[in-house]
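Annex B. Sample input.
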Amino acid sequence: MKVDLSRTAGLKGFQSAFCFLLSSLCSLCLCVSVVKSSFAQVESVAGPPSPPIWTSHGRVEGHLALHYSPAGAFSPDSTTLAVVSEEKIVLLDLAAADVRKVLKPHLKEIGDLRIHSANYISPTRLFILAYGLIDQKGGKGGAVATPTLGFQWAVDQDALYDKVDAIGAGGGFGPPMYFPLLHYVGLYKDGDFTLWNANSGLAVGVKVPDLTRRPNLYAFSPDGHFLLLAQIEGSGTADPVVVLLKEHKFADALPGHQGTVLCLSFSSDSRLVATTCEDGKVRIWREGEWKLLQTLSGHLGPVHWAEFSADGQWLASAGEDKTVRVWNVETGQLVQTLSESKEPVLTVAFAPNGQYLAASTENTVLVW
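Annex B, continued. Sample output.
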């Protein structure tokens, strides 16, 4: 097995490197409960958009990405959802609300493979983050844990596509975060961020000299202009910090959070940002001027995640109160509360076509 993360893009400036990365984008026991139902699509009308009506469409044991956006688990055509179930990946046919296929990823010389997440990187390939055990040479000392492994898996062949990369080899890095909208992995170490493109294998470094403590949460804007930082160790405030990437300097802050910020989420066009917080609020901000546009109240307890629909009209939030809530972004109105979960909901995402919602708890994926 070839393990490689040595390739680096020798590019000057974050934005040129970021644009380069963007240009490179081109016997199972499952407990599946299916509820088949109709779905009213969002109609295009003059004036305020008509709210969608979400109905329960099934659940499956497993998880989506729990510590970064799960949006990439949807296939590009919104027909399939990839759910991680221990060492397997279940592909759910969303229209039929049934299992389409079960994949069993395995890597030569790697044992006890545990999958963090599976995200569509093309219509026929998944990008998988996982770790496992590898025997030391000579068989002395037993098996050791691998660093996080990143690799692509061909869906039709149920086989490894290309090679395996060791992500964060050498240690000292924070947990990798995958950004499905742009197909890159983010790593942080000692004031430096590394952005690694899962398609091209090229990487670029971003240094923020003012940053002297580890941020446990961060997000890059899709347009490459800004970096948001939160959960900065040793910081006296919970408010996220804004970094202007062309200058690699702190430029602003998002004030008013009354607890730890748990999620930073950009809209696909970079115009808006949603922050979720332990204080039970979801806040929507405008990029650039960083004006607070909406404060969304309704969750009873911390809000773990929020994500915009592809068209930016709706926002879904996932809470400790076991609910998913859908909001009108422009008005801040609560459109619907989904209460089918029996556990705290950790992440939520819209399908690319906006017709499905998927949410993940520690052990269960729910679909509406």
